Amino acid sequence: MTLDSPLTDLKGVGDALAAKFAVIGVRTIGELIDYYPRRYEDYSVLTPIAQLQPGAVTISVTIKQAIGRYVRRGMHITEAAASDESGSVRLIWFNQPYRAAALKPGQQYFVSGVFELSHQRFAIMNPSVELASEFPVNTARIVPVYRETKGLTSRQIRTALRQAMPLITSLPETLPTWITKQQKLVSRSEALRAMHFPESADQLAAAKLRLGFEEVFQLSLASLLNKQENQHETALTIDFKEQLAKDFVGHLPFTLTNDQRKVIWQIYLDLQKAEPMNRLVEGDVGSGKTVVATMAALMALEQGYQVALMAPTELLARQHADTIHRLLKPLGKEGQVDLLVGSLTSAQKAKARAAIAAGQAQFIIGTQALIQEQVDMHKLALVIIDEQHRFGVDQRKTLMAKAGHMPHVLSLTATPIPRSLALTLYGELDISVIATKPANRLPIITKITSPNSRPQLYAKIDEQLEAGRQMFVVCPLISESEMLQANSAEKIFEQLSKKDFKHRRVGLLHGKLKPADKQQAMKDLVDHKLDILVSTTVIEVGVDVPNATVLLLEGAERFGLAQAHQLRGRVGRGEHQGYCYLMMGDSAAPTKRMRALESSNDGFRLAELDLELRGPGAIYGTMQHGQLDLRVAKLSDTKLIAAARTAAQKFIDKEEDLLHYSSLASQVARLRAVTNLN
Ligand code: ADP
Ligand code: MG
User: Fold this and answer.
1) Ligand 1, residues 257, 320, 325, 544: which to mutate, most atoms within 8 A of Cβ?
2) pTM of the complete model beyond 0.85
3) Which of 221, 227, 262, 408 would staple 428 via disulfide (CB 3.0–4.6 Å)?
4) Ligand 2 centroid distance, CA of 592 (Å)
5) In testing the pocket of ligand 1, which one of 248, 257, 287, 415 has its CB within 8 Å of the most ligand atoms?
6) From atom 23 of ligand 1, which residue's Cα is the shortest distance away?
7) For 195, what's the count of Cα atoms within 13 Å in the CB-facing half-sphere?
């Protein structure tokens, strides 16, 4: 048996069962071993029957007789009397007619289940039973519970894993010895054994420490290697022209915040180097990242170089094109901005391409599809990536091939992960933080509201609209279905436009609309031809309508913290007070996330809270695809993360050869393809 052996090599796993395993992504023994328990149930303590207390219990017993009968149509009961030296107890199973025949009188069994009252008498209900042995898997231990699927139970998964035990216990070490020693980590084989079949809580903790350390170590190593590689590339150097920067700033309708200044300066220093910049700017929603990006672009344009800006949606790309057009106008550089997105007519596209080819348009704005555009990008010096995290190694390679060199890369994000964590996990990035928002911003007032207070709420909102402000209404998240979301948006639109706000101008925006209609809705909102925009989460990132002051989030309990905070960032962007109403769905109770939103406006603080609420797993909503998600380590475990990061740096400093660690090498290669997110 090897890690690559098919599951059908196991006793009792035929094609039918293997097909069920395939549903959970388990096809080989290796994948089975990699399928960690979701949780554990502690049935490790054996109790004499006479001392049983209500709750989860385990007993070691013989079973006298088991009798099954139908008590009524469709309802079968099996009852058995189990006894040990101290007494006897009833075992009861519902609708498991095979039970009676499976239990052999006189044999010694372990029985684990919940001891509770049933019809005025205590019994153990629906217990797990297995023959007493040295190595029980379903009872009399800390029992692993796995994510199941139809036709595949944890019990079956345990039985399969039990058979893989000899392989697990002989698996080779994957980390360098100096690391396991220094960090006092248990061996990989020991960790995997204990992950599935721990003998104690301590063993389980040690297993998690080891496996968690390893995944963070791999991630850190991948990103550090990416950084090294990037440092060996050459970018176009971009000079800093002080007077130009001054002119630009002098024409802004506001003064830059200190943080904006600081970050721009960091970027200018980077751009003057031949080493490609790879910088992430983290700034809460509304902190003013666009102007920072525009100032970076400015210097490149001045030198006759190209700049590409990629936004996550066309809607945003269009808005950026407008904003940047406006920002560059006083310098007479607005003519260099060109929008290149899929929904342009072919005539418009041809015109844009011609302008780019002729060198008139040097600042190209679009979505990630820009990478695929057939335009000459030999002068591409700077790539700006707004609010997206899927800019991996492949995209970089495509860009490099196109440009003939590595461009400087500037990424902007409003979904910060705490800085220390970002440094650890995304080691290849330099990070700049815009921590403070422009001073004219009033903190958004956020309130949890319930459906029965709608009339009062609507009256209050109407005062805002009367005063000339505008409102976003965002519809509840409904599974993944765009269709359902669109339907729900339409319903709310009907309700508001025909009833509650029929005296106001109400617009609708959702994913199923034609691009032209989406743009029109956005444009109408910006031009104040609408008072209310009912929308799905398509407005989530970046949309900038400073006159909008009210956000009504419907079904707020369904939203993640990061997403809700993003949405809230759509309001309070101008000088007027912003309001965010978290409307609970019918019969929903306020969640911790809603309370956190109510009490804090600080994206960084919320990011930290989100980590605590989430435990292991997704990295603060930044990874749409989950390939970087940690499975064991908690992102809030700063000690472990720092240790793993330090070890990765040491691995590089020691000039260790990755090829000496084949398993590590392949994991790192996989991660390098995705970690280079910016
Ligand atoms: P985000 O960081 O979320 O992308 P934007 O760049 O869209 O934020 O900026 C939000 C709003 O704040 C815009 O209307 C922008 O013009 C304005 N803004 C940016 N910087 C400042 C500043 N220093 N003072 C006042 N307003 C600013
Ligand atoms: Mg933005």
Assistant:
1) 544
2) no
3) 227
4) 27
5) 287
6) 256
7) 26
Secondary structure (H, E, C), 266-305: HHHHHHCCCCCCEEEEEECCCCCHHHHHHHHHHHHHHCCC
For the chain, percent of residues with pLDDT exceeding 90: 60
The phi and psi torsions of 68 (rounded to 5 degrees) equal -110, 145
- What single-letter DSSP state applies at residue 170? T
Return the best residue to mutate from 251, 254, 319, 547 for the ligand 1 pocket (most ligand atoms within 8 A of CB): 254
Domain assignment present for residue 639? The answer is no
Distance between Cα 165 and ligand 1 center (Å)? 58
Q: For 418-473, what is each residue's pLDDT tens digit?
A: 666 676 667 778 889 898 888 877 889 999 999 999 999 999 999 999 999 999 99
Same domain assignment for residues 118 and 248? no
Statement: residue 397 has pLDDT above 90: no
Of all helices (H) and strands (E), which one includes residue 383? strand 380-386
- Residue recorded with tokens 């009490």: 599
- Ligand 1 atom 16: the closest Cα is on which residue? 288
Give the residue, by CA position, lying nearest to ligand 1 atom 17.
288
Index of the ligand 1 atom closest to the CA of residue 256: 23
pLDDT of residue 369: 81
Domain that holds residue 91: 45-140
Per-residue pLDDT band for 624 (boundaries 50, 70, 90) equals very low
Q: Whose CA is nearest to atom 10 of ligand 1?
A: 286
For 191-207, what is each residue's pLDDT tens digit?
999 999 999 999 999 99
Q: What is the pLDDT of residue 398?
A: 83
Does 377 share its domain with 365?
yes
Cα–Cα distance for residue pair 287/284, rounded to 1 Å: 5
Yes or no: say if 298 and 244 are a contact pair by the CB < 8 Å rule.
Answer: yes
Q: Which of 281, 566, 573 to mutate to test the pocket of ligand 1 (most atoms within 8 A of CB)?
A: 573
| pLDDT value of position 114 | 94
**DSSP SS3 for 190:** helix
User: What's the pLDDT at 121?
Assistant: 87
- Ligand 1 mean position to 567 CA, how many Å? 16
Residue nearest to atom 5 of ligand 1 (CA): 288
Ligand 1 shell residues, CB under 6 Å: 254, 256-257, 260, 283, 285-291, 414, 438, 440, 542, 544, 546, 573
Which residues neighbour 370 within 8 Å (Cβ) at sequence distance 6 or greater? 308, 310, 340, 364
pLDDT tens per residue, range 583-593 = 998 888 888 89
Looking at residue 291, what is its pLDDT? Answer: 97
**Radius of gyration from C-alpha coordinates of the chain:** 30
Count the domains in the chain. Answer: 4
Atom of ligand 1 nearest to the CA of 387: 4
Proximal ligand: closest to the CA of 295: 1
Taking only the tens place, the pLDDT of each residue in 121-180 is 899 999 999 999 999 999 999 999 999 999 999 999 999 999 999 999 999 999 999 999
Give residue 418's pLDDT.
65
Q: How far is the CA of 538 from the centre of ligand 2 (A)?
A: 14
Are 121 and 52 part of one and the same domain? yes
Q: Among 48, 78, 77, 49, which residue's Cα sits nearest to residue 65?
A: 78
* 267 and 408, same domain (yes or no): yes
Would you say residue 218 has pLDDT above 80?
yes
Q: Across 307-311, 416-420, 608-612, 672-676, which has the greatest mean pLDDT?
A: 307-311
**Ligand with minimal distance to 575 CA:** 1
61 lies in some domain: yes
Residue with the two structure tokens 């605590």: 612
Name which residue sits closest to atom 20 of ligand 1, judged by CA.
288
Do residues 162 and 28 both lie within one domain? yes
Q: Using an 8 Å Cβ cutoff, are 190 and 204 in contact?
A: no
